[in-house]
Structure formats: C-alpha cells, structure tokens
C-alpha cells in the first residue's frame, strides 16, 4: 500500500509540473540546506508566487506532497485518498524544494520527480553517511542533482567547501560559486557579529546583529544587516538567495528590503532569552560535524562578563556510519581548543566527546554527562546564571529541544519557538 500511494502521488505531482511548468529550484547539502531554501523562498516571494518545502518534507514522499500543497495524513487511508482525488491546492510560479538523501539512488529519484532549473549545493559533511562507503560516495550522490540541472539553468556551489567545489565538472549548466573564499564569484566579506555588552538578556530585546558585504559578479555590492542572527552560516544561506533573485530580475532595492523579512526556522542557531538573564543559542534542529564546529565558533565569539560562562550542551550526531566514533572524538578535541567554560554532553554516543575533551585539556570538573536531555535540562536549570551563553545542539534523535524548553525564559511560547513540539 505504501508503494502504491507513493507512486500515485508522484504521478499526480509530475502531471501538475508538466501542465503548469513552474520554475524548479532545488537545495541540497549536509549543512544549511533548510536555511538556504527558506532564504530563497522568502526573497523570491516579494515578486513571485512561491511554493516551498513543507516542514521537513524533503524525501520521496515529502517532495510530491509539497508540490501538491498537502501535509501528510500519516496512516489515514481516507486522507491519502482525499489527496489523490483533489486538485493541487496552489499552482506557484516557482517551487523552492529541499532534497534530502539517505541511500544511493535517492537523488536520482527526487530529480525524476522534479528536475531542477536552478540547483544549490551548500556544504557536505559525514552526516547521512550511514549507507555510503565514504564521504566521497556521498558527494557523488549529491552530484546527481548537479547533473540533472537543466543545461540552460544554473548551478550554485559553496566555494568554502572544497568537496562541493570539486563537483563543478558534473554540471552542464552554468556554474556560479559563492562563499567567503577569495575565489568565490559571489563573495561575502567584512563579517561582523555584534553582541550585547551588558549580558543580561531579557525577552523582546535585541541580542545580536550580523553585518557583512556581498560582492556581486557585476561589481555591485550589497550591505547585509541581520537582526538576532548568529554566525557566518546565516550569511552563507543568504548568498544563493541573492544570486537567484538577481537572475530572476529582482532589483537591488527589492533584495535589500526582503532581507529584513528572512527569519530562519526554529532550532537553527536562533538566539533565545533564557532563565535568569542568560542567552540560549538554540541549534537543536539537527547536527553534523561541520555545523557543530560552526556553532562552537559562534559560542566563542561571545565574551561573557566576569563570572558568566560559555556553556556547550551537546547531543550526539546521528547517521555517521563508520565515522561515528572518529567524528565525536574530533569534536571533543575541538571543544577543548575553543575553550568553553562548561561542557555538558547528553546521551551514550557523546561520552566520546567528553573523553576526548578531557584528554585534550578541559578539566574534568568543567564537564558533566547525562543520559537524557531531560536530566541535563533539570541540572542546568539550577546551574545557569545571569549572563551565561548556552549553546544547545544535537541531531534530531537527541531531542535537545527538551533542554532548550527547560531553560527558555518564555516556555509558554515553546510551540512557536522550538522544533518538534508535536512529537511525543
């Protein structure tokens, strides 16, 4: 029955695409694809009717559902029949789709559903490598999206990732590279993260400002200013949006105006007011080795007032396959290099993070380990003090949003501000 339903909704979605011929923009990568997809969709919606990935619908079931405009009825046969018998809810001019893969062959299947006119590859990391022999094999699977991009289309590659950049030979379409790298064709520079200086964080206040300059291929530049965003990753997510907006004839004024409307989804490096005047960096949506390092870099960009601390609360990184122990140990060594004041690890797999951090020089007294996020949250609820900066990050299965909920200053807004609040 599952295969029958999948085949039928796929046929229905492909028929809709063949009839109406919307522009298809696809985004993939191990890190940053959701933020990039969201930035592109938000920016283009100022001029076009845009449809974009619903929730995390980025697989063989989710992509057809997004194209038809329906959420999954889960196990309801009547719900599926209603989708199959109903017309698409909307017919956008542009679809911005997120493509996620777990197994070899997944990307070809997704591109067979909706072949990209424009594709974006963000960054690659061992996450989702469980069913791949190596990171290079994972990269080759991602490269299928590049190969499937229409020859008259456009491929955008992150120049800050050498593995991504090495895939440009797979493209028959024009290629534009982006990033902070000096060799990027569209380049960000002069990145600044301004943080609050008084270090007592209360709801409704501004916590941070990111600034950067974006240098375009036509020699123009755009000054980016982002309120309550953190890290170079948020700037990286904007670069493909700006490139695509230019290609689709948005003016510089329209691009700058739309930057103010971009809000990244919950759990993606979002600053939140915490208990007792602390600040939480909520990155609980997911984790990969590259995104863990990027998050720690942001944490260590803060310089807390005297007696306040930088606290890293880390859950495991899932779907690493044979890289699991190696990547958790490497992360622990990097935590020691960054010099966090307190390391809290959560879950069995993160014991390797703690062990490696201690071996690399963190005093054992500045570390704690808990079996569950609930236990960690309750302990931190007592320990967190005014001015502390607390990074909370882990893979979806680590459920680190439970720690965030324990520590946030406005727990009644959890359903609005946090991920996975409809999960049991």
TrEMBL record:
It holds the Pfam family Mur_ligase_C. Residues 27-206 form the Mur ligase central domain. One of its GO terms (molecular function) is ATP binding. InterPro entries: Mur-like_cat_sf, Mur_ligase_C, Mur_ligase_C_dom_sf, Mur_ligase_cen, MurCDEF_CellWall_CoF430Synth. The keyword Nucleotide-binding applies. Gene3D superfamilies: Mur ligase, C-terminal domain, Mur-like, catalytic domain. Keywords: ATP-binding, Ligase, Nucleotide-binding. Residues 267-395 form the Mur ligase C-terminal domain. It comes from the Bacteria. This is Alanine racemase.
């Amino acid at each position: 029955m599952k295969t029958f339903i999948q085949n039928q909704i796929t046929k229905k979605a492909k028929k809709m695409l063949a009839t109406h011929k919307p522009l298809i923009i696809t985004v993939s990568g191990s890190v940053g694809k959701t933020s990039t997809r969201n930035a592109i969709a938000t920016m283009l919606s100022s001029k076009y009717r845009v449809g974009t990935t619903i929730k995390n619908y980025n697989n063989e079931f989710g992509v057809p559902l997004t194209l038809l405009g329906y959420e999954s009825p889960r196990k309801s046969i009547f719900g599926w029949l209603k989708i199959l018998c109903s017309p698409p809810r909307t017919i956008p001019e542009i679809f911005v789709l997120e493509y996620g893969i777990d197994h070899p062959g997944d990307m070809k299947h997704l591109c067979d559903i909706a072949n990209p006119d424009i594709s974006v590859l963000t960054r690659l990391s061992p996450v989702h490598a469980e069913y791949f022999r190596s990171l290079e094999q994972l990269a080759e699977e991602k490269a299928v999206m590049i190969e499937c991009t229409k020859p008259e289309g456009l491929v955008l590659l992150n120049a800050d990732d050498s593995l991504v950049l090495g895939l440009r030979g797979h493209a028959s379409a024009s290629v534009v590279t982006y990033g902070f790298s000096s060799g990027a064709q569209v380049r960000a520079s002069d990145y600044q993260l301004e943080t609050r200086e008084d270090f007592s964080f209360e709801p409704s206040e501004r916590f941070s400002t990111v600034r950067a300059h974006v240098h375009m291929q036509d020699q123009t530049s755009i000054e980016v200013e982002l309120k309550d965003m953190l890290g170079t990753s948020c700037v990286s997510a904007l670069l493909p949006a700006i490139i695509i907006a230019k290609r689709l004839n948005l003016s510089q004024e329209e691009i700058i105006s739309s930057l103010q409307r971009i809000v990244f989804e919950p759990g993606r490096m979002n600053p939140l007011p915490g208990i007792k005047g602390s600040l939480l960096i909520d990155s609980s949506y997911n984790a990969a080795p590259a995104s863990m390092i990027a998050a720690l870099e942001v944490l260590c960009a803060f310089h807390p007032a005297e007696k306040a601390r930088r606290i890293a609360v880390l859950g495991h990184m899932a779907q690493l396959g044979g890289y699991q122990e190696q990547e958790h140990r490497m992360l622990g060594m990097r935590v020691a290099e960054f010099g966090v004041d307190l390391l809290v690890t959560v879950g069995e797999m993160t014991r390797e993070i703690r062990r490696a951090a201690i071996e690399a020089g963190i005093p054992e007294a500045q570390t704690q380990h808990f079996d569950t996020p609930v236990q960690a949250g309750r302990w931190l609820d007592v320990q967190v003090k005014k001015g502390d900066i607390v990074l909370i990050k882990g893979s979806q299965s680590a459920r680190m949003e439970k720690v965030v909920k324990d520590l946030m200053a406005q727990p009644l807004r959890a359903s609005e501000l946090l991920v996975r609040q409809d999960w049991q």
